[in-house]
Amino acid sequence: MPTPIPGPLSGARPRCTRLDMELTGHPRSLSLVRRILCTCAPPQTLSHQVLNDIQLAVTEACTNVIKHAFHHDPTRKYGLQVQVTADRYLIQVIYHDPTFDPATIPVPDLQHAREGGLGVFLIRHIMDEVEYLVDAATGTVTLRMVKFLAAPDDPGGQGENRNPSR
């Protein structure tokens, strides 16, 4: 279960939720990932649409690990770290793949779209920050994804003024 980090006063609402877990490479872990993301979500600052976007991005990331890094081997394991604060939702997917090079991820041809190959594109479009950190010495890959949480009166999503650098 997520661990709330208490606020400054006893009994105050938590300011941060953290979760660190290890999951199997079996596709069944994906439904657990979606439930975990929902459990960690602060309902007062996270719209249903934004939560669905986060679940889609993280599910895509975990699916890519299972499919491309683990080659559907259910005995392999990957880590999932979630940290939610009042202003951001941080997710890290950590796994071992000594052959992975983020520079080789192809840019999809959206004019001739086909099934598959859009996962990383979707992740980058949905999340506000996406970064692959690769430790060449150990073969550890960390996919770091951040979604900045909207103010209560901000509907969230990817509106024109939300992230002008895209």
Query: What number of structural domains do the residues give?
Result: 1
Instruction: Tell me the major beta sheet.
Output: 6 strands, antiparallel
Quote the beta fraction: 25-35%
Poorly predicted sequence stretches spanning 5 or more consecutive residues: 4-13, 159-166
Count of DSSP strands: 6
Which architecture name does CATH use? 2-Layer Sandwich
Rough shape? Answer: globular
CATH-derived topology: Heat Shock Protein 90
Separation of the first and last Cα atoms: 35 Å
Helical percent range? 25-40%
CATH top level class name: Alpha Beta
Structural class: alpha+beta
* CA-based gyration radius: 17 Å
Number of helices: 3
Question: On the 0-100 scale, what is the average pLDDT?
Answer: 82
CATH-wise, what's the superfamily? Histidine kinase-like ATPase, C-terminal domain
Order of strands, main sheet, comes to: 1-2-3-4-6-5
> From N to C, what is the helix and strand string?
EEHHEEHEE
Layout of strands and helices, then pairs:
Layout: E1 3-5, E2 16-24, H1 29-40, H2 48-69, E3 77-85, E4 88-96, H3 119-126, E5 129-135, E6 140-148
Antiparallel strand pairs: 1-2, 2-3, 3-4, 4-6, 5-6
Helix pairs in contact: 1-2, 2-3
